[in-house]
Design brief:
With about 130 residues, the protein is mostly beta strands. About 10% of the residues lie in helices and about 40% in strands. It is built from one helix and seven strands, in the order αβββββββ. The strands form two sheets. The protein has a five-stranded antiparallel sheet with strand order 5-4-3-6-7, covered by helices on one side. Strands 1-2 form a two-stranded antiparallel sheet. The longest helix has 16 residues. The radius of gyration is 15 Å and the shape is globular. The structure holds zinc ion (ZN). Zinc ion (ZN) binds next to loops.
């Protein structure tokens, strides 16, 4: 798969992110949400899927803390997390605005958007109240 093809699948994801909206692919055949965008639905292999808006709410499935990020442009410490979204899909992202001692598995999170490297990047914050 070429980079051009990959960019084609993800271009709508990034366009909506610039508007502050998180979207994910949803299969029109089996209704499953999945990520990352790919040719066929990983559940039923249908090629009929479309992006739909996500609530942006979910929970921490797993995470790791990088105490020495790759360069000064990254938050430090950098919390890289596997987020379980409420629509039944998962994505890797960052959790911002916390220290590593305050995060636990299954903590509730909500999407936020930060400016990073010239574009808006979807990241997550701990939910301040039960969602
Ligand atoms: Zn499907």
């Amino acid at each position: 798969m070429t980079n051009t093809l990959v960019a084609g699948f993800s271009s709508e994801f990034w366009e909506r992110a610039q508007e502050g909206v998180l979207v994910r692919p949803v299969c029109q055949s089996c209704q499953k949400s999945f990520f990352s965008p790919q040719v066929l639905c990983p559940r039923c292999q249908s090629d009929a899927w479309e992006y739909k808006e996500s609530s942006g709410t979910g929970a921490v499935y797993s995470f790791t803390v990088i105490h020495r990020p790759p360069d000064i442009h990254f938050p430090s410490p950098l919390v890289v997390a596997d987020i379980q979204l409420d629509e039944g899909w998962r994505m890797f992202s960052w959790i911002v605005g916390i220290s590593d001692s305050k995060i636990e598995l299954n903590d509730r999170v909500k999407v936020a958007f930060i400016n990073f490297s010239g574009r808006k990047l979807p990241v997550f914050e701990l939910a301040k109240e039960a969602i």
